[in-house]
Amino acid sequence: MKVVLRYLGARAAFSSQRARSLTGSNHAWRRFDRAGWFAGCKDHSQRDGVSRARHFCASPEKHSDARPLLVWNDEEQMVKDATRKFALESVAPLVKQMDRDAKMDAGLLGQMFANGYMGTEVSAEYGGSEMTFTQTCLIVEELARVDPAVSVIVDIHNTLNNRILSQWGSEQQKQAVLSRMATQSLSSFCLSEAGAGSDAFALRTTATESKDGGSVFVLNGAKMWISNAAEAEFFIVFASVDLQLGYKGITAFLVERAASGLEIGKKEDKLGIRASSCCEVRFDSVRVPVENIIGQTGHGYKIAIESLNEGRIGIGAQMVGLAQGALDAVIPYSMERKQFGKPIASFQGMQFQIAQALTEVEAARLLVYNAARLKDSGRPFQTEAAYAKLFASQIAQKVASQCIDWAGGVGFTREYSMEKFYRDAKIGQIYEGTSNMQLATIAKNMLPKWTTG
CA of 122: how far to CAs of 79, 130, 182, 300, in Å? Predict the structure, then answer.
């Protein structure tokens, strides 16, 4: 499947073919003269603004260039279909056991590495699958339809840790570590602390230069609620080289699990996404060579912020997949469950509720993939990422709750998956920036547009 998931460059070939197809005489109307008008337009009276626009927009060729936001190209559809198949065949049989044991199945994790899911956007030079960010979101969504816990393992590893090393890591770090993270080694993103949640940059973990010439930094402190920590072999740790500098002192370090003084603390007994481990990580005089600084000293704030903006889109995709998975489970049941001698799905009141839920999930999906495509195109996407995470997490919790209502008593039992989706949904409004933090981002970025004077 890894070959299937690799980006094959078909889009470039398609674009080239499309460009060649537009050079024939049938498309002469698209040529412009030096004045910017349509050279193929015989009636120059049409060159007034309205007629010109009407003439241009009426062309079927022009319309064919536009791709609806949720119409996937060949590679995207292939990734989506392959992941759906993998989720149903390899993930679904393990979901209940992993949730009950609060533990990721080691064999499944190995399959995800083997199939290319753990190095989605990493260059093939380092063992990655060279996908787009949109394709990564499709993977996260499809996995979340079956198990949101599995999807978040993939999401964090790719959109935060792999992304950080791909963009800011040194060549040595990429060769030695990124290549392993893309093919065999799980990683953790260590930012949050007991007193630094939403105010993440109030962190107190320190990195002090050693007294032996400054070739080593010594890390002391503790990180809380660290995803993937129980299984991770590498940790991207944010620590301050000087607390007096505030956010300007924050630096990102690459730390191996085997480092002396690094200790994995208590594994949290969580409400949801239980197969994804969440632990305290402690650093007691952990010596880290200066070569393990990611980027530059004092640039950790920038690295964390930019990575979290991308990660929030991934969480939006997870929440969309979760909501879709809950609907996938309950809608067929609503067609079988009878009340007053009729399937409950035959009642207009029930149909309207389902229709409303489907509409809201589709709206959330549009927000997520709009943000993803903005990211892929190199355009600013911070506000759109906040829109996506905020709304998708709200809808996931709402829809998961409704699905239990529609299922009745069985929805409240562990026999069906609705109760798990409900438990898993809550975290979407908390991690990688709470809903209030998304609202703050949106307000900060958008309100100045109405400022006058």
Answer: 16, 5, 7, 21
